Amino acid sequence: MSDIYDIVIVGGGPGGMSAGIYGSRSRLKTVILQKGRLGGQAATTEELENYPGFGRGTTGPELMQAMADHAESFGTEIVRDEVVDLSLNGDVKLLTTKSGQVYKAKTVILALGAEPRSLNIRGENKFRGKGVSYCATCDADFFEELDVIVVGNGDAAVEEAMYLTKFAETVTIIVIHDEGILDCNQASAEKAMANPKIKWVWSSVLQEVKGDGLVESVVIKNIKTGELTEMQINGVFFFVGTVPKTELLKGQVDLDEQGYVITNEQMETSVAGVYAVGDCRVKYLRQVVTAASDGAIAAVAADKYLAEEEDFKVRVLNVKEPVWVAFWAPQVEASINAIADLEQWVAKTGTNVKLVKIDTYRNQRLVERYAVDEIPSALLFHKGELISKLSGSFSPEDLDNQMNLAGF
Amino acid sequence: MIEVNKNNFEEEVLKADGLVMVDFWSPSCEPCKELMPSVHQLAEKYKGQAKFCSLDTAGNRRLSISQKVLGLPTIAFYRDGDKIAEITGEVAIEDVEAKLNELK
């Protein structure tokens, strides 16, 4: 069974790397499956100055390489392959990759990330790589002494626009809001406003990208007046937010309307043993530091899940005698009494029946899996099968009856 | 892989017979550098079935623009000097290999 991974992480951005570090450091057999380049979106960001402990001068690629080395130093395997199919229900989850490998996993951490949103305006797709770009660090130096526009006004848009001024002659930012209003943080807004190479076009959106082989001009629409203006330009950089890369998950785990994975505080998705971290999940702030935080939480939650599943197997599912599983809670007094009665009954009945107590406060997953809707409840298992269920109060006679009915 | 630049591009690519694959990259393009080892492996694997070239766009900006390449990474395929296919933006090596197999 050694070919089953404890944790298979899909995606090698900061969320996946951090999960890898925590997982492998807890001696769990952990692999990261990553299509193409490691590091996620963070690896395309030149200036990354807000990751705690890594100040000015840190670059995205450097930080991501350090995270990859860190994960590998604890034993995380990093495999360059693309997951194309997932089977997430069941104890052993199966992940099929493009190269035809099938990875078996006890738990899966989805760190699929997000990608730049495309506005799908006329010419945008046609001129991709021909003057339309989503990556300033990749393409900035083509535009030395040339003129470019930036579409968007969030953190990424304004910060990348400043990076572009190191190369381009002028950088014109197209902003949908009224003059002076930007979605980005105040520090970046002030720096950009003071930059003489940056020009602003307010209350406007991009209507079309035009050219002949390469970008030559854009059509800008003023949303207040409806006026269209054609502007000669060499490059168009889009920074208008991101969309989650969760196409693969449709129908597998619960997603919100925009396609982000819905998780709880423990990063658990709607499927047991499956977690989601980083930019692909519903969350308030999408940053390297929050992705790394998600990864740590998911790996620890996965570790706990593995321990609980193993424990339940050893003490309940793999036992040859019949086992009563009693669900109780410290705050429900009736359940404490019921457990005491049950313990006495088991002691009297002898060694051919076992008792396992489950604190429902600490193990909500079993409560959900076996649809325990009342506390106390007692469930009878034999050879891994649920045979009967007593909900609410139960007497020694009830237990005897159930045992007789089950033929013990 | 053959290093091409503004001096030998015409000779090595535009005047070459058969299939030529050109990897456009630059030192400041992180996705390009990440992709590069697998491009070199691909060149090794398909040795003899196509010609494999690498073009550093830094210092060859005009040449790149003349080839209508204004975004990195870009992998371009030429046959008998004509550009016949191009992969740009999010370039995955699997897609490059698939395209190569289609064209070779």
UniProtKB/TrEMBL annotation, chain A:
It is an enzyme of class 1 (oxidoreductase). Its EC number is 1.8.1.9. InterPro entries: FAD/NAD-bd_sf, FAD/NAD-binding_dom, Ferredoxin-NADP_redctase_2, Thioredox_Rdtase, Thioredoxin-like_sf, Thioredoxin_domain. It catalyses: [thioredoxin]-dithiol + NADP(+) = [thioredoxin]-disulfide + NADPH + H(+). Gene3D superfamilies: FAD/NAD(P)-binding domain (3.50.50.60), Glutaredoxin (3.40.30.10). Residues 308-403 form the Thioredoxin domain. Keywords: FAD, Flavoprotein, Oxidoreductase, Redox-active center. GO terms for biological process: removal of superoxide radicals. PANTHER family: THIOREDOXIN REDUCTASE 1-RELATED-RELATED. Belongs to the class-II pyridine nucleotide-disulfide oxidoreductase family. This is Thioredoxin reductase. It comes from Syntrophomonas zehnderi OL-4. The lineage of its organism: Bacteria, Bacillati, Bacillota, Clostridia, Eubacteriales.
From TrEMBL, chain B:
The record marks D23 as: Deprotonates C-terminal active site Cys. The keyword Transport applies. Disulfide bonds join C29-C32. Residues 1-104 form the Thioredoxin domain. GO terms for cellular component: cytoplasm. Keywords: Disulfide bond, Electron transport, Redox-active center, Transport. It comes from the Bacteria. NCBIfam families: ThioredTrxAClost (NF047697). This is Thioredoxin. It comes from Syntrophomonas zehnderi OL-4. The lineage of its organism: Bacteria, Bacillati, Bacillota, Clostridia, Eubacteriales.
